[in-house]
Amino acid sequence: MMYNYCCRSIIVQILIIVAFSVFLSGCGKKVPPKPPGQEEPPIVDDLSYSLDGDRLKLTWTSPEVKRKVKSGLGGFYVFRSKKLVSESDCENCPVIFKRVADILFQDTEDSIKYAEAIEKGYRYIYKVVVYTNNGVTGRDSNLVDFTYRFPDK
User: Fold this and answer.
1) Cβ–Cβ under 8 Å, residues 115 and 57
2) What is the pLDDT of residues 6-38, one digit of tens each?
3) CATH classification at residue 136
4) Which domain holds residue 82?
5) Looking at the 3D structure of the chain, how many domains does it have?
6) Which positions ≥6 away from 56 have C-beta within 8 Å?
7) Cβ of 153: how many Cβ atoms within 10 Å?
8) How far, in Å, CA of 68 to CA of 62, rounded?
9) Is residue 31 part of a domain?
10) What is the dihedral of CA 148, 116, 77, 69, to 10 degrees?
11) Which residue has better confidence, 111 or 99?
12) pTM for the complete prediction?
C-alpha cells in the first residue's frame, strides 16, 4: 500500500515538472522586446548607390513618418556584406552582414549619404536599418547588390 502511494507521488511530481516545462518553453525565436506603445521605425525603401572611381556613395531619403516617430529617430545603421568574386556562390547560404556605420539622424536632412572606399574583385551587398533613440530597430531596407570587378584587359 505504501509502495503504491510513493510511486503515484513520484509519477505526479514528474507529470507536474513536464507540464511546467511545456508551459514555460517558448517558440525559440528571441527578438529584442518592443517597448509598449512604441511605434516601429520606418523602412528605408530607396537605397541606391553610385561609384566614383574606387569610392562608393550610398544615398537614401529620410523616411517620411508621423512627427511623433520622426522626432524619436536616432539614426541609421549601414550594414555591408563583402565577398571575394572568386568564392563560389552558395544559393541557400545566409548573407553575413557587418555593421560599418552609424549615421545619426539630422531632422534637417532629406537625403542621407554614406561613402567609403571599395576594392576590386569583391561582391558587395548593403542595407540600411533605421533605429530610434530608445534603441528600437526597424526592418531592413532594400538591398544594394553589385560586383566591383577588375577592368577587362
Assistant:
1) yes
2) 677 788 778 777 766 666 665 555 556 655 666
3) 2.60.40.10
4) 48-148
5) 1
6) 49, 50, 115, 116, 117, 118, 124
7) 3
8) 15
9) no
10) -110
11) 99
12) 0.71
What is residue 121's predicted lDDT score, i.e. its pLDDT? 92
Neighbouring C-beta atoms of residue 91, cutoff 10 Å: 5
Judge whether 13 lies within some domain. no
117 in a structural domain: yes
Q: Evaluate the CA torsion angle 69, 41, 104, 135 in order and state its sign.
A: positive
Cβ within 8 Å of residue 44, ≥6 positions away: 60, 61, 63, 76, 128, 129, 130, 141, 142
Cβ neighbours of residue 133 closer than 8 Å, sequence gap 6 or more = 72, 73, 74
Contacts 24+ apart (CB under 8 A), 98-107: 101/76, 101/77, 102/75, 102/76, 102/77, 102/78, 103/75, 103/76, 103/77, 103/78, 104/74, 104/75, 105/62, 105/73, 105/74, 105/75, 105/76, 107/70, 107/71
Q: Map 128-142 to HEC letters.
A: EEEEECCCCECCCCC
* Inside any domain, residue 127: yes
